[in-house]
Amino acid sequence: MHYKKPNKFFYRLVQFISFFLCTFIFRRKVVRNEIRGVKGPYVVIANHECALDFVTLIGLNRRPMSFVISNSFYSTLPVQGIMDKIGVIPKQQFQTTSRNLKQIKAVIDNGEPLVIYPAGLMCEDGLSTPIPLGTYKFLKWLGVDVYCAKVKGSYFVMPKWSKGFNPGKIEMDIFKVFDKEELNSLSVEEVKERTREALLFNAYKDQDERKYSYRKKGEISGMENVLYVCPDCGKEFTMELKNPHTLKCSECGYEAESDAYYMLERKSENGPELRYVSDWNKMILKKVSDELSLDTPYEIKEETDIQMVNKEKKKFESVGNGVVTLTKDCYSLKGTVNGEEISIELTPSLYPMLPYSPGKYFELQDKDTIYRLVLKNGRMVQKCVNTIKMNFRLLNNITDEFE
Fold first, then answer.
1. What are the backbone angles phi and psi of residue 81, rounded to the nearest 5°?
2. Contact predicate 125/278, CB 8 Å
3. What share of the chain is helix, strand, coil (3-state, %, to 5)?
4. I need a labelling partner for 6 at 20 to 30 A (CA). Which of 107, 199, 205, 301 fits?
5. DSSP 402
6. DSSP letter at 130?
7. Burial of 205 (0-12, 13-18, 19+ CB in 10 A)
8. What is the pLDDT of residues 245-282, one digit of tens each?
9. How many Cα atoms sit within 13 Å of 403 on the Cβ side?
10. 152-195 pLDDT, tens per residue?
């Protein structure tokens, strides 16, 4: 496939916008930048803490880099024309077509740098999302030097569970992970271990050590959609926002307050002391995993509005409604889209995660088609996503921790 070289004028324009955002919104500090001045082809693997992580990276190399980005994100950008001109490669998350592979290989074959985000999705709880197993074979297949661009702090600038920007401070550290000769000689398991070591992160642990300040000073509005299980009584969907800094269980009275640095402190006499949101969420994920592990049927069935991308308007619009069902063996969507009946079934073992927004929607991706499911009961979104995440791990016998 022919390599589409990024247009330098538009690339510099995006870099200028990046400079503005990194100066005034992200307040970026560069720890190392080992791709500066590097010639020839190479791959940059990057962790993914927020939706605009590519903005914090694109300005750190004068050479145009081709970014692989989410097709769902790309499809709703009002500036698709500019994105095309700077050489982005849109692809479905957790699906790689032969066309995607050809586009990616064309970048490398033409001696140019490529940027990928192996986890594919930004996190809701400050912990790394799973890295697809095929990533490690993919890096060996490309056969070029590999660098890591590791960002710290951007999770709090654009929390997945909140709205808008929360200006603060981030760090960017770019360092070499493999040279191509070494990469070719390593086993897939060795590549996996070093890649994971480079990419995995715990945003709350990092913040506890650095204690950077952010404009919203610890406000956690929206977190009730992520931490939906009370850590004391175990009831679901009883955690409510008492004020912008405090969550309280309507059943047992368990209460936790966020300080100015997003560390939690128990305010009730009952229940565990959980300093990190990530620790609380681990308890929820274990609960879901335990339920899936039982030798009994497991089913979530929810009514949903169905949305699809209007390519002309570049946004998701309602096209029908239906019922989404999650079981251990199948994820299905049945309903009406544009007046026609549809029935979609997906295999759970193939999907480590799916794109979503807490309290609002999650997406089913069937080949090139994206169905955005806006659940009637928005608070069920997180449980659906947790089910998908933990079911994948159980079905693929994955026991390692992501932290």
1. -60, -40
2. yes
3. 30, 30, 40
4. 199
5. -
6. P
7. middle
8. 999 999 999 999 999 999 999 999 999 999 999 999 99
9. 11
10. 999 999 999 998 899 999 999 999 999 999 998 999 999 999 99
